[in-house]
Structure formats: C-alpha cells, structure tokens
Amino acid sequence: VAPSCDTQNRTMMKKYGQILLVVIAAVAIIPGEAFQPSLTPRHVVVSALRAEEQWTGEVVNDEDGRIRGCTVVPVSETEFTIQIDGTEADLGNFSNVVYRKITADAKRQQFQGFRPGTVPPHLLPSYRTFAMDEVAREATLEAMQQNEIRPFESCREDITIEQVSIPPKPKKKKKKSRKKKANAEPQVEDDTPAPWETFDTMKEALKAGWEPGQSFSFVAKNCKGQKVKPVEEKKSVI
Predict the structure, then answer these.
(1) Cross-strand bridge partners of residue 80
(2) pTM (predicted TM-score)
(3) Rounded to an integer, what distance in angstroms lies between the CA atom of residue 120 and that of residue 38?
(4) Cβ-based neighbour number of residue 20 at 10 Å
C-alpha cells in the first residue's frame, strides 16, 4: 500500500530537520567562505517548503504551465545550456521564502556565545549563498523537466551557474535644500531604470550586494539529462 501524502510530508520534514541541523552545525564550525551550499541533498529545502505550504512550486506562472523567461539551448544530445530570467520566473519571492525558512530554523538552535534565537552575524553570508544557490539549481531543474528533459542523477551537483545578473542597489535620495536660488530651474528626476549588473560567478554577485528577496538572472551550463519524448495517448479500440 502506497503511503499517504500526510505520511510522506511528515517523513520529509523529519529528514529535512535532521539534515538542516547538520548544515547549521557545519556552518557554525566552518568559515563562511568554506561553506558550500551544494553539500545539501537534492530538493531538501524545496520539499520542506512545499510540505509546509509556504511555497507551492510556482516558479512558473505561464498559461501553458512552463517556466517564464526560460531558454534552453542544446549543446549535445544529453547536455544543455539554460538561461533563466529571474524577473519572469519570480525568483525574488522564491529566494526570500528559502532564506526565511533556513534562518528561522537556525534561530531554534543554540550557538555558543549567543542568546537563544540569535543567529551569529558571520553566518548570514553563508545562508544568503545557500538561498541563491538552491533557488538557481531548483529553477534549472524545473526548467529541464518542463522541457521534457529528464535530469541525470548527478545533474544538480554538476550544474555550473554563470553570468549572474542582479538589480542595481537603490539610489539614496538627496536631501532637498531649504534655500532656493532665485530663478533656479526645477530639476527633473531621471526615472529611467538603471541597468542590471552582470557577474561571471555567483560569488561575485553575492559580494556585490545581492540579498534574498531580490531577483536575479543567470545562465546554467553543464545541465545533463535525457530528452524524453512526450507520451501520446493511445486511442481506445472499440
């Protein structure tokens, strides 16, 4: 008898809790630069979010159910390059949910030298790295599956994220001078949106100031999988 959805969700949450404890413990003893988000098993955070109904998997919101802003370019029969437009795919909201989840779980842990419920500030960069990496890989796998590409078992770890584009930092508003010069022409504010900045690696984009909740676009290379032909419905013979 197949297990019920509730049983599967409870099992997944239990496994996620155990793994997250290991991740948090690793972050606490390993310097931020040495912490590698890719050590987390596939779909752990995302599956937990779906189980808690905090995120429904709607990285996609197109009429045909496919991920928006996705371009798939075949390199060979089993290798693909995938470009994701973060704004179209709504990766900003997704990254915010992932980050809030892992930091909320971290607050339940006790870190030596800190009060209960406090996450050491030096660990936050590692959590931001984890959120960005998790979202990018999950979006890539989602794009592959929706384009009838079955990812290989090691695909998630083999993916390389390049050409990461992030929105510019918001400009600080200038204080208006109380004294107005006579016959001074009114200044017209430039409402033209500033162009996004593109970096070669995810690490550089994080160093430039990307924060969870902000969108980001990227190119995923070395995406390996098998193209699957859609199954045609067989006509019933009367």
Answers:
(1) 74, 223
(2) 0.67
(3) 21
(4) 20
Query: CA nearest 154: which of 170, 166, 137?
Result: 137
Residue 140: which region, alpha, beta or left (left: phi > 0; alpha: psi -120 to 50)?
A: alpha
Give the mean pLDDT of the chain: 76
State what percent of residues in the chain have pLDDT above 90. Answer: 49
| Amino acid code (one letter) for 119 | V
Kindly compute the dihedral angle of the four CA atoms of residues 44, 55, 214, 222, in this order, to the nearest 10 degrees.
40
Q: Is 183 helix (H, G, I), strand (E, B) or coil?
A: coil
> How many CA atoms lie within 13 Å of 92's alpha carbon, on the beta-carbon side?
11
* Token pair of 155 as six digits: 């695909």
**Helical (H) or strand (E) element with 106:** helix 91-106
Q: Residue 18 and residue 83: Cα distance in Å, rounded?
A: 33
Identify the pLDDT of residue 156: 94
Backbone angles phi and psi of 227, in degrees to 5: -65, 125
Q: Quick count: other Cβ atoms within 10 Å of Cβ 162? A: 15
The two three-digit tokens of residue 230, written as one number: 């859609």
